[in-house]
Each structure stands twice: as C-alpha cells, then as structure tokens.
C-alpha cells in the first residue's frame, strides 16, 4: 500500500511540475515576463548625417576669407570629418591632440558651444568658417564679443564668477599635471579673482559685455594679443 | 605633434583668442611664416606611376622620408618630380597614410616586402591601424617561424668546436644527426616497448600448473620478469643520467616534463628494491607498480603526435572543464529527480542520490548497462527524459563545442597576443608621443639658446630645425603657458618639484597668502623674448615688490636646491656665462620662488652693483637702446625680502 501512495505522489510531482511550466509559458505568451536578459530591439540606425556646405561664392561673401583660403580650410575640414559635420566627440578628440599633456575636453566643450552658433549639436563647415572669420579677420570688437560669448556659458549676457571659474578650470586642465610651479587647487580661483578685479567695474559680481569690452580695450596686453594670430592662415 | 590633425592647427590657434582676456601677461610672438609658400602639388614618380599630392600633406610627418628634406635626394631636376625606384603598389598604402593618418596593411602584399618599403620610407610599423595590425603581426610571426625552421636545419650542422657535452646533447635532441644517436634512439624505444609489454603480460594468467588456480605469469616466472625489469630500468637510468650530464642547463632539465616522467618511471623499481618483503607497506608497493605504466609516456620523445596531443589537451583545459561542469549539473538534477521518483518502489536500486548518479551517467551517455532500471511510472518517465536529454546534452553540443573551442581558443590567444603586443605598441607610441611633448620643452631651451646666439651678433642663418607646423604648435602651447602662468615640465622635473615642495623646511606660505604675487611674479619673471617691436614693455605691476627685469635676453628659472637639476638641461646656455654672475633668489617671507640667472652677453653688465635697488622705472629704459642689458633688477621693497646671493653656476 505504501507503494501506491508513493506512486501517486510521484505522479503528483509530475503533475505539479507540468503545471508550473505551463503557467510560465502562458505568462510568457501574454508578454508579462520575458526570458532573454537584453530586450533585443532593433535600434534605429541613425543615418549618417551628411552635409554639404554652401557654395564658395556665398561663403566668400559671408566671411572675410579669400577663395583660396576657403579651399584650404575646407580641404582640411573634410579630411578630418568626411561627413561634413563635426560632432562634439570628434571636436574634443581633435582638440585634445594639440594638448597631449593635459585634458582638453572641458575647454573643447565650451569651444564647441561657442562655434555651434545655431545650437544644433554639430558644427558644420559654415559655423566653422564663420567662427574662424571672426577670430582671424574680425575687428577687435568682434573678437572681444566672441570671447565674451565663449565665457558666457548660459548665454544670458553676464559672466558670473561660477562661469568664469568653469572656464578657468578648463584652461588649467589643459596644462595637465606636470607643470612648474605645481598647480594648486586655488590657482584657478585666484585667477578668477584677478580677472574680476580687472573687469568688473561696478563690482556687482558679474561682468557685462560693455564692462568686458571696456576693460579689455584699456588693457594693452590684451589688445596687443588680439592681433597675434592674424597671419595664421 | 598632432600631425594627423595638422589641418586643424589654424583653428586651434584661432581659438586661443579665447585665452587672451584671461591672461595676465603678454603673449609671446607668433612664429613668422617666412616662406609663405602657396600650397603646391608635388609629383611623386614611383617606378613610372605618378602620384600627386599637396606638399602640406607630406609635411604632416616630418620624421619620415617624404616629409623631410631627405626626399630632395630623389628630386629629378629635368622632370621636376621626385623619382623613387620602388614598388608602386606598396606605395599606395604609404601615401594613404599621409592622407588619412592611418596606415593599412594590404593583405595581398608579402610581409617582408612591405616591411622593407616601410623602412625605406621611414615609417614605423607600430602605427598600423587597429584594423590591420593583427593581420600584420600574424603574418610577421609566420614569417619568423619559417625563417626559424630554416635555421633549425642550420642548427643541425655540427659546429666545429663543440665540446663532448654539447655533442651529446645534440645527439639526444636530434637523433638523426649521427648514427650513434640513431642507435641510441632505437635502443631506448625498444626497451620502452619491452618494459610496457612485460608489465602487461605479467598479469595474464599462464596455463595452469598442478595448482588449481591460474597464476598470472608474473608469479610463475618471477625471476625472468624480474631480470627483464631490471634490465629496462638500468637502461632508463643510464639514459637519464647521460641526459642530465649533457644538458646545458641541468636545473632547467630537471624541471622539464620529460625528465619528471623519466624519474617517475624508474622510481618504483628502486623503491621496490629498498623495501622488499615488508608486509606493512606491500599495499603501497603494489600501487607504486601502477606508476610503471608511465613508461609509456616516454614514447612522447619518440612521437611528435603525442606531444601535440598533450599540448592541445592542456590548452583546451578550460573549455573541457566547463563541459564537465555543465554535465555535472545535469547529472545532479536528474539523479535527485530519479531518487525521489523511485523512492516508493520496493527493492529499488536507487538507494541514495549518489547511487542514482551512476544510473544518470550511464543513461545520459546512452550506455545503458541495465544494472539499474526504474520501476515506477514516474521513474520511467523521468528516466526517458533523462536519456533524451542525455543525447542532446552530449551529442548535440559536441560539434558546437568543438568549433567553439577553436574559435574561443584562437580568440583568447588573440586577446593574449594583443595584450602582449599592446604593451610594446603603446610603449613605442608613447615614446613617440612623449617625444612630441618633450619636443616642446626641448624647443624652448633651443629657442632660448638660438635667441641668445642671435643677439650676440652671430648672424646665424640657421633655420630652426623644426617645421613651421611644429613651431606654430609650440607657440600655441607657449601661449597657454602664459595664460595660466605655469610652465610645462617633464615628468621627472615635476616629481622633483613635488618632492621639494613637500620637503621644504622654510615656513612656506601657501600661495593663497602671497596670492596676487605668485602668478604675476613667476609669469612676468619669465619674459624672455626680446620685445623690441613693442613700444612699451608694460608689465602690469600690481605690486611694487614684484621682480621684473629689463630686456633680458635669456632667463632660466632654476630651483636652487641640492644640485641644480635644470642645469644639465640648460648646460648649453652656460657657454657664454660669465663666472661671476650672480643668481639671486627672490624670496618673499621665506618662500623660495624662483632663482633667476642672467646670462650675460659680452658687453659687460652696466650696473651690477646697484641693480639691486633700482627703482622700477628702469625697465622702460632700454628695449630699443641697448643691444643687451642683462642684469636683473630686483627691487628691494621694504624689509621682509631676503635676497640671497648665490654664486654662479
């Protein structure tokens, strides 16, 4: 008699196991549980953005570069970015190669935002060449305005101390670790203090564009260095 | 140098305008683009096939043949092109390297030919892109092995002055070199075979004598077997000792696998000799005899295939282990299930779970001995599931596993290879990269020296050895230094400075107290370029106590501490040093900032003595007037400045 009890028990075990598997399968069919760890969704392949710049004549009209210079610039640009636009990662990459000892990515980020005037996340050749036109061929006023835009991270028309500190830290990051004298933690902050002392005329804690331009125009060093890169191309 | 992105250098330099308003010091001058060449097309004639490219493309890599002036050797005046008598097909990838910055290895190309081309054009193979690097390295290794095989044959030739020991070793390792070696080889092989056969035959029951039970031959003809065993062991012992004697490195020989097998093969005999008729340990003695079967492994010296098999098993060990593990899991699961299913039936063989293991293994491997069978219905159901899954578990994955083996094995090997290669690759690339960083530091020193030479009136028409690109890049880095009022130094210098800062015994004030001074002081004290074009050398003098100089031609800032490390680097600037020149340490409130050395030029120092206390206006004096005015004026402000005179270098 014991055997029959065990026999039925054995059959019961079978029954229970079958029931459990069936319910799991049902739930799976209903989509409540999924078995595979990674839900395989076909990611939409982002079509590679291809961009063709405006014609040479238009660019010539809009910028202060000659035809030949535009040709040289475009060749270099297209060589590095065959698709015609630079995204932020590539930008950071390229810029970091010029500063092997430090970390140029933060400053490159700010620079990218300064060049990407229409804020669409990528720098096309037009943006690039417009920016360069201001920097290399513009008047001192325009250059100063460009620099102000660079420092004004949130584009609200004022440079606050925090924004300046960010920029300063980014610049110091590019130096890297091996400097002489050794970089201290407070150095960027001190530098920001000096900057604000020089620029912030009414001591309200922010620098407006007029204060900025005024102070810069009164500083001989700055005025002189603005002309430094004029023969770059 | 970021040669790959050379085209973006103008952009990087333009973007440096963003630093200008932040900087407190004047910027250095930009290097002049003296030869403002228009970008011209260069024609490269490679064995008749003409390639054309821009000059600037080739200039990107100035340390290669095409990027440097070395190509002028190949210039053909009549046809105005550069002619190279090389393979045009291989040249394609080389030229593409200049264009794209990535070097690719064309698969159809012979590896040694490609290597030669790279060497000719001065390109190091380590910069081959990731897509092609593996292939390149594989082919290179194959080639090397092929060359090694050739060398092996050379190795077999008897060198004239080999000692007796070396000859013996060669005879052991390569039996086909001499007849004696061959004889020895066959003799040992023969005796190994004899030994194995005797071990086997020993246990066979020979015909029955008048004792009822069959005795194994070993017990019948004890003496004969003992003699044969002795003979074999003697031969093996002699062989082992001879190998030991002849081995070039005895320690390494003793650790090798083959010698361990040899020892294990002969040891049981000797142990048996030692402990004869000791009943206590005879059990262990019997076990030892099992080890005699290891003699069969001695055949691996005679057979290449056996060695390969052993190596393969060793290398696939991890995959086999995983297979075993998954099988074990399945066995345990089914054994448990079968045990509980069969618990009910009487006189069941499934007495415990371990007992069920045997059933599960036999069923899953489809052996099916039949010594244990389930009797209950549930047991039979699970038993059939077990055998079905056994088929699947074992038979199906085996081909998959086999192919996975080779794939994963090669992948692992590739990963290991890549890891091994990566270190050397990265090291070489790092050297090249640090070369560029060091190039900047080097050029700073060179630049200072060349300026010094210029000013002493030597008309050095020498061009700067570095390309325009490099000089522009260095100018950019220089501007950054000026903006942040810190200098780039190399690693060791940095570490030294770091240590010095830590070790300073002076009551050094942290920079925050002397806050305004430090950037201005260090920055402006390094104004080394001659600012002749500038009408007024204006340094923002925030504090009267700042040290400044007039038109100093050369300055090096040294850290005066035990032994001047920087001295070695500026040793060239010692050339024109006057012996009694003074370097002064300007220390504010006990903190050593910098020591400034002035390098004088032949015209004597105008007013050395009272240079110490000159008022600040002196600086506006001289740029246009003097050819040189090398002394430093350190304005002594109020008390609290200790100026220490340190004698010249």
UniProtKB/TrEMBL annotation, chain A:
Domain EF-hand: 103-138, 139-174, 187-222
Entries under PROSITE patterns matching the protein: EF_HAND_1, EF_HAND_2
Location of this chain's protein in the cell: Cell membrane; Cytoplasm; Peroxisome
Signal peptide per UniProt: none
Xref: InterPro entries: EF-hand-dom_pair (IPR011992), EF_Hand_1_Ca_BS (IPR018247), EF_hand_dom (IPR002048), Recoverin (IPR028846)
Keyword Nucleotidyltransferase: no
Membrane topology according to the record: Peripheral membrane protein
Keyword Methyltransferase: no
CDD domains: EFh
GO MF annotations in UniProt: calcium ion binding; potassium channel activity
This protein's UniProt keywords: Calcium, Cell membrane, Cytoplasm, Ion channel, Ion transport, Membrane, Metal-binding, Peroxisome, Phosphoprotein, Potassium, Potassium channel, Potassium transport, Repeat, Transmembrane, Transmembrane helix, Transport, Voltage-gated channel
Gene3D superfamilies linked: EF-hand
SMART domains: EFh (SM00054)
Residue spans crossing the bilayer: 12-35
GO CC aspect terms: monoatomic ion channel complex; peroxisome; plasma membrane
Similarity annotation: Belongs to the recoverin family.
Identification of the protein by name: Kv channel-interacting protein 4
Annotated source species: Oryzias latipes (Japanese rice fish)
Organism lineage string: Eukaryota, Metazoa, Chordata, Craniata, Vertebrata
Automatic annotation (TrEMBL), chain B:
TM spans (from-to): 180-201, 221-242, 254-275, 320-341, 353-369, 381-402
Localization: Cell membrane; Cell projection, Dendrite
CC annotations in GO: dendritic spine; neuronal cell body; postsynaptic membrane; voltage-gated potassium channel complex
Transport keyword on record: yes
Region named Disordered: 508-553, 598-635
Domain of life: Eukaryota
Signal peptide boundaries: 1-16
Alphabetic keyword roster: Cell membrane, Cell projection, Ion channel, Ion transport, Membrane, Metal-binding, Phosphoprotein, Potassium, Potassium channel, Potassium transport, Signal, Transmembrane, Transmembrane helix, Transport, Voltage-gated channel, Zinc
BTB domain ranges (all copies): 38-107
Stated name of the protein: Potassium voltage-gated channel subfamily D member 3
Source organism of the structure: Oryzias latipes
Gene label: KCND3
């Amino acid at each position: 008699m014991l055997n029959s009890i065990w026999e039925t028990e054995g059959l019961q075990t079978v029954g229970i196991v079958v029931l459990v598997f069936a319910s799991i399968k049902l739930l799976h069919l209903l989509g409540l549980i999924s078995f595979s760890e990674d839900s395989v969704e076909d990611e939409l392949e982002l079509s590679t953005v291809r961009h063709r710049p405006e014609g040479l004549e238009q660019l010539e009209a809009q910028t202060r570069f000659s035809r030949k210079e535009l040709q040289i610039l475009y060749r270099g640009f297209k060589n590095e970015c065959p698709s015609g636009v630079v995204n932020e990662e590539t930008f950071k990459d390229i810029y970091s190669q010029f500063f092997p000892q430090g970390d140029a990515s933060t400053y490159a980020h700010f620079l990218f935002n300064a060049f990407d005037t229409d804020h669409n996340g990528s720098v096309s050749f037009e943006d690039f060449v417009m920016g360069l036109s201001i920097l290399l061929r513009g008047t001192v006023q325009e250059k100063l305005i460009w620099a102000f835009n660079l420092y004004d991270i949130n584009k609200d028309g004022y440079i606050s101390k925090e924004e300046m500190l960010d920029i300063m830290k980014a610049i110091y990051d590019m130096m890297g670790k091996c400097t002489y004298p050794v970089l201290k933690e407070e150095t960027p902050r001190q530098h920001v203090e000096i900057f604000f002392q020089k620029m912030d005329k009414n001591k309200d804690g922010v620098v407006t564009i007029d204060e900025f331009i005024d102070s810069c125009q009164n500083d001989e060093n700055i005025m002189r260095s603005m002309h430094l890169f004029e023969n770059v191309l | 140098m970021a040669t790959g992105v050379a085209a973006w250098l103008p952009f990087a330099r333009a973007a440096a305008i963003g630093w200008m308003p932040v900087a407190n010091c004047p910027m250095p001058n930009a290097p002049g683009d003296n030869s403002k060449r228009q970008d011209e097309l260069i024609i490269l004639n490679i064995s008749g096939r003409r390639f054309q490219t821009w000059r600037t493309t080739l200039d990107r890599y100035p340390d290669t043949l095409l990027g440097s002036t070395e190509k002028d050797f190949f210039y053909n005046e009549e046809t105005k092109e550069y002619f190279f008598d090389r393979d045009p097909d291989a040249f394609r990838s080389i030229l593409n390297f200049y264009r794209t910055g990535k070097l690719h290895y064309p698969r159809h190309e012979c590896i040694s030919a490609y290597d030669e081309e790279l060497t000719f054009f001065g390109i190091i193979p380590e910069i081959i892109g990731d897509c092609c690097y593996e292939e390149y390295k594989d082919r290179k290794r194959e080639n090397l092995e092929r060359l090694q095989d050739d060398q092996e044959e050379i190795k077999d030739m008897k060198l004239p002055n080999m000692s007796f020991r070396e000859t013996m070793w060669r005879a052991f390792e390569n039996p086909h070199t001499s007849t004696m070696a061959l004889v020895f080889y066959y003799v040992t092989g023969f005796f190994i075979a004899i030994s194995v056969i005797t071990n086997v035959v020993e246990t066979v029951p020979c015909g029955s004598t008048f004792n009822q039970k069959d005795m194994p031959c070993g017990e019948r003809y004890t003496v004969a077997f003992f003699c044969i065993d002795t003979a074999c062991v003697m031969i093996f012992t002699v062989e082992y000792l001879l190998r030991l004697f002849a081995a070039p490195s005895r320690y390494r020989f003793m650790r090798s696998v083959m010698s361990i097998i040899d020892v294990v093969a002969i040891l049981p005999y000797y142990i048996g000799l030692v402990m004869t008729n000791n009943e206590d340990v005879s059990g262990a003695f019997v076990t030892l005899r099992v080890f005699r079967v290891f003699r069969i492994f001695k055949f691996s010296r005679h057979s290449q295939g056996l060695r390969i098999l052993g190596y393969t098993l060793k290398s696939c060990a991890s995959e086999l282990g995983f297979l075993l593990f998954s099988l074990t899991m399945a066995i345990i699961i089914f054994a448990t299930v079968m045990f509980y299913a069969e618990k009910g039936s009487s006189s069941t063989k499934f007495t415990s779970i371990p007992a069920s293991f045997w059933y599960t293994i036999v069923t899953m491997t489809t052996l099916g001995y039949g010594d244990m069978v389930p009797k209950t219905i549930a047991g039979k159901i699970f038993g059939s599931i077990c055998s079905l899954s056994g088929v699947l578990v074992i038979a199906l994955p085996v081909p998959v596993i086999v192919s996975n083996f080779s794939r994963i094995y090669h992948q692992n090997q590739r990963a290991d290879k890549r890891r091994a290669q990566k270190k050397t690759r990265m090291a070489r690339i790092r050297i090249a990269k640090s070369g560029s960083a060091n190039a900047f530091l080097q050029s700073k020193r060179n630049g200072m020296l060349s300026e010094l030479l210029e000013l002493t009136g030597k008309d050095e028409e020498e061009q700067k050895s570095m390309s325009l690109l490099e000089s522009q890049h260095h100018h950019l880095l220089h501007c950054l230094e000026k903006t942040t009022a810190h200098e780039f130094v190399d690693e060791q210098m940095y570490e030294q400075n770091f240590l010095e800062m830590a070790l300073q015994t002076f009551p050094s004030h942290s920079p925050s107290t002397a806050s305004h001074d430090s950037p201005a002081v260090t920055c402006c004290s390094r104004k080394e370029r001659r600012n002749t074009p500038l009408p007024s050398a204006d340094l923002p003098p925030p504090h009267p106590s700042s040290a400044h100089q007039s038109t100093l031609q050369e300055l090096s800032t040294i850290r005066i501490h035990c032994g001047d490390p920087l001295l070695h680097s500026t040793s060239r600037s010692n050339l024109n040093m006057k012996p009694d020149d003074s370097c002064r340490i300007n220390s504010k409130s006990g903190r050593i900032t910098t020591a400034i050395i002035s390098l004088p030029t032949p015209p004597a120092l105008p007013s050395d003595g009272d240079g110490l206390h000159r008022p600040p206006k002196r600086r506006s004096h001289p740029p246009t007037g003097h050819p040189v005015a090398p002394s430093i004026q350190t304005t002594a402000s109020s008390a609290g400045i200790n100026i220490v005179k340190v004698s010249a270098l």
